[in-house]
Automatic annotation (TrEMBL):
The lineage of its organism: Bacteria, Bacillati, Actinomycetota, Actinomycetes, Kitasatosporales. Residues 320-330 have a biased composition (Pro residues). Gene3D superfamilies: ABC transporter type 1, transmembrane domain, P-loop containing nucleotide triphosphate hydrolases. Residues 319-345, 578-598 are annotated as: Disordered. GO terms for cellular component: plasma membrane. Residues 24-292 form the ABC transmembrane type-1 domain. It comes from the Bacteria. This is ABC transporter ATP-binding protein. Keywords: ATP-binding, Membrane, Nucleotide-binding, Transmembrane, Transmembrane helix. Residues 348-578 form the ABC transporter domain. It is a multi-pass membrane protein.
Amino acid sequence: MTTATARLLPRARRFLRRRTRVLLLLAGWSLLESAHTFLGGYGLAKALDQGFLAGHTGVGLVWLGVTALAVIVGGLAGRGVFRGLADLVEPLRDGLVRQVVARSLTHAVAQPARAADSAVVSRLTNQTEIARDSFAGLVLVARSFVFTAAGAVLGLLSLAPQLLLIVVPPLAAGLLLFLATLRPMAARQRAFLQADEDLATQFGAVAEGLRDVVACGAQQRTADRAYGVIEDEARAARQLARWAAVRCLALGLAGQLPILLLLVTAPWLLRQGLTPGAVLGALAYLTQSLLPALHTLMNALGSAGTRLLVVLDRLTTGPAPQPSTAPPPATTQEPAPHVPAPPDGPRVELRAVTFAYGPAARPVLHDLDLTVEPGEHLVVVGPSGIGKSTLTALVAGLLAPAHGEIRVAGRPVRAPLGTDPSLLRVLIPQQAYVFSGTVRENLLYLRPDGASTAALEAASDAVGLDALVRRLGGFDAPLDPGTLSQGERQLIALGRAHLSPAPLVLLDEATCHLDPAAEMRAERAFAERPGTLIVVAHRITSARRADRILVLDGNRATCGTHDELLERSPLYRDLAGSWQPDAPEREENLTAKSRFPV
Ligand SMILES: Nc1ncnc2c1ncn2[C@@H]1O[C@H](COP(=O)(O)OP(=O)(O)OP(=O)(O)O)[C@@H](O)[C@H]1O
């Protein structure tokens, strides 16, 4: 805080020096406004002593009239004060907004690969408004306290100097206690703002990556992390409230205790020769002027003041380094942490699985039995809308069957994954998801513990992503999803899946935008990768490359090798009808609606 104050003070001086004329105007209006403070006690004392108690009612009324006039003049002066205040406060807000925008743009240009700075939203809206309101409140209150205190002290002195002895000690003690709370309160305020920014950043990241969160089954982990951030903010708010309570104690000491002392010592003061009017005037100074001024000063300094200091510090030092939405990139200098190679892969078992998209809907899958052996490469084919994507979503655990059971590696598919890497699975859908960040961050999204550049190169070569990486400018080049074709997005998603430690990979037409040669290369890469592989095929050649093929046909499902299915499945025969063994690269779309009416 001391460093923040030291850094901000010269700027504040510069800002105020450039506005001397406005400050002088404010001081002039404030002086006029404070005349009613002086007369508020002095006029009352004279009205009582020289007027009503002396039997001169007229004189008393004149003094009261003068006091009332001072209040009206003070009110008019208040209008001038507010006009001057706007000239001081609005330039501050405009300057801060300009600075935040400039810093965020510089930050974005300097680090294009980083995720968008979501916390800047909090800076531009919440924090600049806090700075403006706090600064306005502070100027109003500080000015009011100085002129009110000067008017009251002058009044007390002119009524009876002894009054100062009763008022000043508790006032000073309370003010000191209050000053002692400023520093810890500023620290709490800073912690609260940090928690607020963390919350904005966290939710920004989650909103951007919702699709990945769901696809990876990370809802619980994401929710836990979000609750943690919310809890941090609540804790910071509670600590701030505790210090606000200490500040109330200081206000009692400085503002209420002098009133109590004055009342208790009133008989003694009267015996010392003070007039009843002087005691009443002193009471008026304490209750009507000093106590309200103190109250607002402490409130303003304790909350608005520390808030202003902290917010200005944050706004003028620029965006804090923030976590990317993607996992931290691994560097080639550091050895990559050990990630277990995918084991053979899990067994996938479906027993009497029935699934419908609603209680009254016709089941998409009905009583389906299927076993995919560890390390097996299964291709799923069938007409459009027959349920291929539904099947992969069920195996990934994204959907729950209405009846039956699905097990992966012997465990119910929707049971919590825990930390067992053999239970991990990755599903790449047809619409590949790519986010703003570097190529490396995109590829490592499912490898939170990182991977060496050599591993990235191996995966890119395997799936056929190498040419694209070169064209983009390497693994650390920024990636703008909007400039990539559908096929290029699919290549990135395939590279990401290939690098993931998941021993079960589900590709749901994940190569449909690639040309046949690129598709063959990518599918071979996954077939050679250890693990269980289930592919929803887009072309007949995909089926030919599989260990086994599952043909979904309405409520029937037939499984077998290519040759077996040619014999047993009329649908598969029909499907492969135009495929010629001597023309292996000729492609037939397996899901063409025209050939397979559902
Ligand atoms: N979220 C959903 N709500 C309701 N019905 C759905 C939903 N998703 C899919 N369906 C329906 O379920 C059936 C199976 O859809 P699915 O996407 O699994 O078929 P598919 O074989 O993968 O089709 P394609 O080859 O065209 O991708 C279709 O009739 C589809 O309209």
